[in-house]
Design brief:
The chain has 253 residues and is α/β, with parallel strands linked by helices. Helix content is 24%, strand content 28%. It is built from six helices and 13 strands. The radius of gyration is 19 Å and the shape is globular.
């Protein structure tokens, strides 16, 4: 029986601890191809690189494993992997483990999830894994069993067409459990801090604080993380608001 083929990427860079942990886990489930940015691309979202060539470098090769560094964005990594690196169509795409959560509105900025959306667009079952942490060196041990459980579930059962998973973990010694929940409502405020500039120009660092707009709603990803649970959120690529279409019918000619 042919082993599963799993494609891995991230937005923290091919050298990040999180993608190393994810690669080790996925090697227990199948053959692995890693194509990840050659340096951090956090916040890259669904960006692509249309105006300059994108380079690809083989970093490491072993039985059942090939690791490549790509000069492009996470989405570039997936596009290039499917045409230049994977010996056949992957059975699964996983992105992460991201250093920092991608809950609530952060999903829209995330390069981790941008790669997941690209895999989903290519009709490959796709999952993003993220850990709520501010550290470059983390203890991923509390996430390992849950990651394997979710990954096996998707490998066995697949996902509906046009649906992918956003999975987030709190930074805790032991998870209380997994909860399947929707995105919480929230946004970022105070997003810029002045930065010294030797040329006297106005310059700013992107920073910010997240504001949870429904902190008491226990049926959200953010509440789950705040209370020690991992959150699993299914996300649809089709962003059409079908409920509003009828109210816009008079616009048609």
């Amino acid at each position: 029986m042919e082993r599963k083929l799993i494609l891995i990427t991230n937005d923290d860079g091919v050298q990040a601890q999180g993608i190393g942990e994810l690669t080790q886990l996925m090697q227990t489930l199948g053959d692995v191809v890693v194509v990840a940015p050659d340096s951090a691309r956090s916040g890259a979202g669904c960006s692509i690189t249309p105006r300059v060539p994108v380079s690809l470098r083989l970093c490491r090769e072993a039985p059942g494993l090939r690791v490549f560094a790509c000069s492009g964005s996470p989405v570039d990594c997936i596009k290039l992997a499917l045409e230049a690196c994977c010996p056949r169509r992957p059975d699964l795409l996983v992105s992460g483990i991201n250093h920092g959560d991608n809950a609530s509105c952060s999903i829209h900025y995330s390069g981790t999830m941008g790669a997941v959306f690209e895999g989903c667009l290519k009709q490959i079952p796709s999952i993003g894994y993220s850990l709520r942490t501010l550290s470059h060196t983390c203890d991923f041990q509390p996430c390992r069993e849950a990651i394997l459980r979710v990954t096996r579930f998707v490998l066995d059962r697949g996902l509906p067409q046009g649906v992918c998973l956003n999975v987030n973990f709190p930074e805790v010694p032991k998870l209380k459990g997994l909860r399947v929940v929707p995105m919480g409502r929230g946004n970022w405020v105070r997003e810029w801090a002045p930065a010294p500039n030797p040329r006297g120009l106005d310059a700013y660092w992107l920073t910010g604080e997240f504001v949870n707009l429904e902190p008491d709603n226990s049926e959200t990803d953010y509440w789950s993380l705040d209370h020690g649970y991992a959150s699993v959120t299914p996300v649809r690529l089709d962003m059409t608001d079908y409920a509003t279409m009828a109210s816009l019918a008079d616009l048609q000619q």
